[in-house]
Amino acid sequence: MIAEKMKEMVANSSAIRAMFEEGNRLAQIYGPENVYDFSLGNPNIPAPEALTKAMKDVLLEEDPVELHGYTNSNAGYADVREAVARNLNERYGTSFEGKNITMTVGAAGGLNVILKTLINPGDEVIVFAPYFGEYRSYVNNYDGVLVEISPDTETFQPKLVEFEEKISPKTKAVIVNNPNNPTGVVYGEETIKRLAAILEAKQKEYGTDIYLISDEPYRELVYGGARVPFLTKYYDNTIIGYSFSKSLSLPGERIGYLVIPDEVTDSEEVISAANVATGILGFVNAPTLQQKAVARCLNEKADLAFYDRNRETLYEGLKKAGFSCIKPEGAFYLFVKSPVEDEKEFCTRAKKYNLLLVPGSSFGCPGFVRLAYCVAYDTIVRSLPKFEKLSKPMGLEANIRHVTPYVPGEQPRQKVIKLNTNENPYPPAPGAMEMLHQMDPEKLRMYPDPEIKMLTECLASRYQVRPEQVFVGVGSDDVLAMSFLTFFNSGKPVLFPDITYSFYKVWAELYRVPYTCPSLDGTMHIRAEDYCGENGGIILANPNAPTGLYESLDVIEKILKENPGVVVIVDEAYIDFAGKPSAVSLVDRYENLLVTQTFSKSRSMAGVRIGFAIGNERLIRWLLDVKYSFNSYTLSALAILCGTKAVEDETYFQKTTSQIIATRERTKRRMAALGFEFPDSSANFLFARHPKYDGEVLFQALRQRQIYVRHWNQSKIREYLRITIGTEEEMETLYEALEEILKS
Fold it and tell me: Are 472 and 452 in contact (CB under 8 A)?
């Protein structure tokens, strides 16, 4: 009878290994070339030639008795450890000595050694989901308690607020895996600094030592200039676990090392205990031949170009097939959202196409599947048609159009200071308010004017264009959605920035419009040249949301001139706060230009839902054709009357927008004085970050004080808060709250 503890472990044995074995079974039935096994992170490129030569040289040059015997220390050969220490010092500016290095039987052996060294029964070890599933077993080996931090399924960056909350006096260690298995996400320097600061504070609060164990088998496998911070430089109580399995394609040779710096609390004791643990766990010492060989190849690397080509091909292929996943920056895994709630069911369905995927629940993150792209390139290419078939829903679901919806700003029911949805803090124009009281109820009995003639003519007069150049809809969202449906039908990708109004992606996916998102530059502006290649249309928010930055009409004109055959939409929801010229002045010169605006912001009518577009008469006629094919009566009679009165009251409009601009400029000065950084907004909001404070932490702290701002968990902007400009009184309350938070 096996041990009770092992019964549980057997029952929960690795799904990865099980899927790998299933692959072998299917290969015998269908042939290896017809099985697409993405289950196991087993490198598919040979070890560097230098490694093969090193092994041969070691066999010829070293004393065979010594070479094949035990080392004189469980920690490994002294010369090997010194070589590893020197190499790390050269690469990362550290000051390790040979004594700080313990050679191990791979990263797994190293993790077991250090957990055996540190963990008492009942001690807590924190991991960030999704995480390598074997961590559960490793911690359980020593009767520790695994504490999971729930996954951020948008960015897969660590939830540091939850992390801080879950650290307790029992917390002994934290394991981070960077780059991450299974997501391929890299935790950047800012994330590591915040994590380290939290650990430092908690050590001080509880009077305990909390060890940060950095599991780094994928350290060298990064793409596109991504940088993996070396964690000993950020937190003293850091211990590094490393393996040559991935960097030198040596998973079967079981060779790695631990780094235990002098800065670790009681480092000499920890080093000694780790050496003893190596012996008593049965490893005795790392393989002697492999120690000598890798010491001669410490600067060798895997062929990143091979993995990068696989990454790009599989990622683009899966996206084209309709799957959702974050593009990995490191390792060799894609973490793909399951199109059905139960990802195990999806994995079962995938097996019908001989596609072998690993369920995300194995990594503490159900609803996703992991694909290891360390396979032959041909395997990826031949698998893509299978993924196309797999992406097609079955049964009832096959008749449903699935999209990831836009998430609107929260509308709290309780009384709060609401600075999260860019609403105007002042009431609508007095004339619009009067119309609410004077309106003839008889008008509500009849359909409204489908041509919206009164408001259309009023807008035409206000913007000095012809009525035939104006289209009115139910808010600018309605106008923009109609525009996507009308103008973006070429099959070529529509272009819009990677950081902009997130509804653009939703419409593109809803209407099956391919899209590409060029990155903003280092100042958060667009690059005009990114929008000058072949495309199916362009949409730009100006000023941009959420950055608030305005692009000059010279930039807009350059894009228009380079794209005469496609429609360029300029979304000017915030133009009235810019104090700069509108692209409306260009519509008579460029037949491919459509400018959209809204009554929601500058005219204080977000609840009435009025938006409009101005452009060439042909564009407007095509929009109207789609509208009348969709819904003839889009705008209510009440909205038409109130909107007309609001446009007519130019004096009130100028007064309130000027007030908001003045408050915005004062807010910039006050926020800068508090240490905040932000682009120079031309909108009715600021996009602000504080270099010393986590964006989510600030967001939650303000929320606790009944002040609502907007925060996104997207990797590039997660440090920022979008803060709507409210009244002077509301902004004063915000300043006082921020001062209090920053001092605490």
Answer: yes
Q: Which ranges in 588-725 belong to alpha helices (H)? A: 617-630, 637-648, 650-673, 695-704
As given in the structure block, the two tokens for residue 367 are: 């609803």
The residue type at 172: K
Give the best-scoring range by mean pLDDT among 18-32, 165-179, 392-406: 165-179
Query: What band does 414 get if pLDDT is binned at 50, 70 and 90?
Result: confident
pLDDT class for 60, splitting at 50, 70, 90? very high
Q: Quote the mean pLDDT of the chain.
A: 91
Helix axes 78-92, 288-295, angle to 10 degrees: 40
* 200 three-class SS: helix
Q: Which of 2-6, 84-88, 202-206, 462-466 has the lowest mean pLDDT?
A: 2-6
Cα–Cα nearest to 614, from 462, 490, 489, 505: 462
Element (H, E) at 164: helix 160-166
- If one counts every other C-beta atom within 10 angstroms of the C-beta of residue 145, the result is 16
Q: Are the C-beta atoms of 546 and 685 separated by less than 8 Å?
A: yes
- Which residue in 659, 678, 679 sits closest to 731, CA to CA? 659
- For residue 226, the tally of other CB atoms under 10 A from its CB is 15
Dist CA 45 CA 353 (whole Å): 26
Give a three-class secondary structure readout of 285-323: CCCHHHHHHHHCCCCCCCCHHHHHHHHHHHHHHHHHCCC
Q: What is the CB neighbour count within 10 angstroms for residue 8?
A: 12
How far separated are the first and last CA of the chain, in Å rounded? 57
Over 64-113, what HEC string results? HHHHCCCCCCCCCCHHHHHHHHHHHHHHHCCCCCHHHEEEECHHHHHHHH
Domains of the chain: 16-36+303-399 (3.90.1150.10), 84-295 (3.40.640.10), 403-744 (3.40.640.10)
The greatest distance separating any two alpha carbons of the chain, rounded to the nearest whole angstrom, comes to 104
pTM for the model: 0.66
Burial tier of 560 (Cβ tally within 10 Å: 0-12, 13-18, 19+): buried
- Give the chain's length: 744
Can you state the percent helix, strand and coil of the chain, rounding each to 5? 45, 15, 40
Nearest to 175 by CA among 121, 111, 117: 111
Task: Provide the 3-class DSSP secondary structure of residue 596.
Answer: strand
Residue with tokens 């009849």: 446
Q: Which residue from 577, 566, 576 is spatially nearest to 539, judged by alpha carbons?
A: 566
Q: How far is CA 641 from the centre of its chain?
A: 44
* Other CB atoms within 10 Å distance of the CB of residue 630: 12
Q: What are 348's two structure tokens?
A: 């079962």
The DSSP call for residue 683 is S
CB atoms within 10 A of CB 575: 26
Band of pLDDT at residue 395, cut at 50, 70 and 90? low
List residues bridging with 369 in a β-sheet: 336, 359
What letter does residue 327 receive in the DSSP assignment?
P
